[in-house]
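Issue 218. Parser rejects a valid record. Input:
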Amino acid sequence: MSASKPAWFFAAVWITSVLVLLVEGQAIPVGGIGVGIVLLVLCLFVTATTEPEHMATLVAGPARRRVWAQLGLAAVIISLTAWNNLAYHNIVEESLAIPLWTPLVEWLKRLGEQWFGEGLGTFLINPVTYVLIPLILLLLAGARLPTLGFSRGHRVGRALLICCAVPLAWIAYILISGQLSIVRLLGSFASNFMQNGFLEEFLFRGILQTRLRLLTGPGWGLAAKMCV
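Output the parser choked on:
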């Protein structure tokens, strides 16, 4: 992947985005760039230490049309959830309602706050809008669970060990040193799971990336997803 055309394409997009920030006189997100470089190194290390995965066969004919339809549904859902986030962070006016969608989100927010507490409506909004609704729509559109990430991964244990060794060591250190309690740690995990974590990964990797992969291949599918 590191020497492929999709990889070079993504690198060009990434560098161009930094140059655009410089030209516009905006502050360069040094912290974000640093994190990106660390993640890139980890990705390259994982790629180098795991066997190549079997290249997926591109779909054709009626199956390809079904995948395009599924990709269209995914794009709509992602756009709607993006609107939710813009409204949540006061970037757009909450009064700008989307028929059917906005009333549903508001109802989920009220119900979530009843169940989990004031200000925790996203504990219900995100699981429903990121997972439940898109999963039902994709299954109705002909997708199957194994193609949506619900199958055995490729060298998952080895990849997790490489990527999680340092964070887990740091968590163990702050737990042992008393800087963080196990209750607070579990609470953070639960909060992240209910609001982001698995939910966003399912929407962008389980649905979006797998549809792109079936249409364009693993390299271009990954590059296109990362540019979204």
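Fixed in the parser; the record now loads. The chain has a mean pLDDT of 85.
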